[in-house]
Amino acid sequence: MKKFLYSLLLMIPAIGLLSSCSDDDKNLPDVSFSYEYEGAQQSDGKLYVAQGETFAITAINVKNNEAGKAAGITAADYYWDGRLQGTSVMPPFGFEFVTNEYTPVGEHQIGVVCPVYALDKELANASIFINVVVVASPEDLPFPPTENDDDNSENPDEGANPEVAVGSTITSGTNQAS
Q: For 26-143+158-172, CATH number?
């Protein structure tokens, strides 16, 4: 009986060590993301690219929504339809995507996962999602090229490297993307 009592008493501290404390008041960064791109056209909140063409996310930008405080990222993991394509560790954290005859025509999603550092905040991970539509030919793009327009100047976004706001999810730095 004494062994059982001692075992029971020893289990109480062990339970305390194995249980985690609830920290619902995480001090997560309040940041906004935008991205710059080239080689694609933006319409209706989606990027359009012709099958067989190359396009790039040229920069991932982060802005701290708390005035006067710095924020940034140190790397960006790029996913195409949930499959890791590569990692960019050099600012401005861009990545090039090549579509070919094996890239299915239709809607796809680019996911970008990056650690977020902000002054006086916990380390966090951000998940950014960019919707991409691959079309069969350049004539199927929202701003198709014309015979008299070799540089596709009808597309107001082409070559301008516009910044487009993106939706993102911020989670605690202890949660890792799988």
A: 2.60.40.10
Phi, psi of 45 (to 5 degrees): 75, 10
pTM above 0.85, yes or no: no
Give dist(CA 160, CA 37) in Å, integer: 9
End-to-end CA distance of the chain: 47
Q: What is the pLDDT of residue 170?
A: 62
Q: How many CA atoms lie within 13 A of 7 on its CB side?
A: 4
Task: Report phi then psi at 119, rounded to 5.
Answer: -55, 130
Q: Which residues fall within 8 angstroms of residue 115, CB to CB, at 6 or more apart?
A: 73, 74, 75, 123, 124, 125, 126, 173
